[in-house]
Amino acid sequence: MTHHLLQIGGITPDMRERLEAAFTIHQLDDFDPTAITHVITNGHDGVNPELMTSLSNLKVISGYGVGYDAIDVTEAVRRNILVAHTPNVLNQEVATTALLLLLACYRELLRDDAYVRSGEWQAKGNAPLTRSMDKQTVGILGLGRIGQAIADKLAPWDATVVYHSRRKKEVPYRYFDNLTEMARACDALICITPGGPSTHKIVNAEVLEALGPNGTLINVSRGSVVD
Ligand code: A2R
After folding, report:
1. For a substitution probing ligand 1, which of 166, 179, 198 has the most ligand atoms within 8 Å of its CB?
2. Residue range 107-132, pLDDT digits in tens
3. 223 lines ligand 1 (CB under 6 A)
4. Which of 33, 83, 106, 186 could form a disulfide with 54 if both were Cys (CB 3.0 to 4.6 A apart)?
5. Rounded Cα distance, 176 and 81, in Å
6. What is the β-pairing status of strands 3-7 and 60-63?
7. Comparing C-alpha atoms, which of 63, 61, 133 is closest to residue 98?
8. Nearest Cα to Cα of residue 73 among 165, 166, 197, 191
9. Domains and CATH numbers, the chain
């Protein structure tokens, strides 16, 4: 029996080859909704509710990413549709990106890059000095799989790691049950919670004010987490 898979978003040649061994692949601009049994999608696009309703024989939604906030999981469960995602695969890479962004902010990398490229360095000499990243208090909003990888990667900078999540964990870092209080205690705040309604704009004006004018905000979660 042929399984019919609807592809949402881009896939690599390797993914295509493996999927083609098991499925007939259909694209969004040309498919019969009643024939589709499987969907492959990314974390950003997910499956929109109207599309999901139209796929009356859908059995599996496979998201190649960690976040599944763009998929109505409650509705999927109600319809007995299995939803899969790919946690852990990119923990280290997302954590490295978080560190890259943090270091780039502290060291004004973009400002200094522009300074050199514009010829100002040659004309005026060194750009102003920047801040040290050593011994900073770094708050992690969402100490899950990726949050922990970020905490691990902060070790060489001798950071004091603190965190806020829904529950306190068995970790050697200080827990804040209040995000604003944590922001007040931090030099930098790194967001790495899931998206969706429960985290929508939880980094709000109050949190940003508590972080202060010299605070650094790094968001490697969804854009929806920050107002
Ligand atoms: O449930 P808890 O207490 O373990 O906390 C989780 C935390 N979290 C929240 N923290 C504060 N307020 C909330 N409303 C809230 N909801 C969840 O986020 C946990 O510490 C963390 C999520 O960790 P994991 O489930 O292990 O996710 P992972 O693999 O680290 O990925 C995080 C997100 C994905 O959902 C993608 O959207 C993005 O990274 O790429």
Report:
1. 166
2. 999 999 999 999 999 999 999 999 99
3. no
4. 33
5. 37
6. unpaired
7. 133
8. 197
9. 3-84 (3.40.50.720), 91-225 (3.40.50.720)
